[in-house]
Amino acid sequence: MASNLKVNKIEPVDPSQKVELVNPKSPGLCAGIHVIENGSKTTISDNSTYTWGTFTKLHTDTKLVYHGVLHGYDGVDRDGSGSFISFQSDSMPVTKYRTVLGYDNDGIEEGDSGHVVTGAIPQQTVQYAETYTVKWGYDTASSHRFATWNPNQSTEARINGQRVSTLIIWEYY
Predict the structure, then answer these.
(1) What's the rounded Cα separation, in Å, for the pair 107 and 128?
(2) What is the pLDDT along the chain (173 residues), one digit of tens a residue?
(3) In which order are the strands placed within the sheet that holds 83-89?
(4) Is beta strand 131-138 parallel, antiparallel or unpaired with respect to 48-56?
(5) Positive or negative CA dihedral for 66, 69, 102, 92?
(6) Rounded CA separation 134/128 (Å)
(7) What does 21-69 look like in DSSP terms, one character per residue?
(8) Nearest one of 148, 160, 162, 155 to 72, comparing CA atoms
């Protein structure tokens, strides 16, 4: 019986040939991905703001979408209603977003808990190609959901290593 299998050789791209996109600013095209990681163990309180880190926006005409996890420990039975994430640059004042969702891994007051942050920012809000500082926190009384940000084994012996909170920011057209 004859085989119907065909094998085609894929030739590598010649690096001397220039490839151009028809429209390099097509809607939805990713212009950059920024990753912020913070592994500093920090004690948390109400009415406080904490710096997650910084990133440099590459283009003036792009929008941002972000997703991240803030690791916490020693969850407290509070609603997290005052929680926020904020973006600020030299040219842009603090802009707070309430796109923060609390979670509790073990369903009890003690143990791993934290926040998931997800959202989008329009180009008109982040219109400068410069360095932005990302912060998060609580701006109302009795709203923090955990006592320690980025816990480690000195917080709880069962934690293996240092927790690192990561935020991924996509810059797109």
Answers:
(1) 42
(2) 555 555 555 566 666 766 565 567 888 889 999 999 999 999 988 778 999 999 999 999 999 999 999 888 876 655 566 788 999 999 988 888 887 666 555 544 456 677 888 899 999 999 999 999 999 988 877 667 778 899 888 887 777 788 899 999 999 99
(3) 48-56, 131-138, 83-89, 95-97
(4) antiparallel
(5) negative
(6) 15
(7) -S-TT-TT-EEEEEEEEE---EE--SSEEEEEEEEE---TT-EEEEEEE
(8) 148
Beta bridge partners, 36, equal: 167
Under DSSP, the state recorded for 84 is E
DSSP 8-state code for residue 111 = S
Structure tokens belonging to residue 90: 């030299």
**Measured between alpha carbons, how far is 55 from 170 in angstroms, rounded to an integer?**
11
The amino acid that residue 68 corresponds to is G
Task: Say if strands 30-38 and 100-104 run parallel, antiparallel, or are unpaired.
Answer: unpaired
Paired tokens of 167:
């935020």
The verdict on pTM exceeding 0.85 is no
User: How far apart, in whole angstroms, are the C-alpha atoms of residue 86 and residue 135?
Assistant: 5
Q: What is the CA radius of gyration of the chain?
A: 22
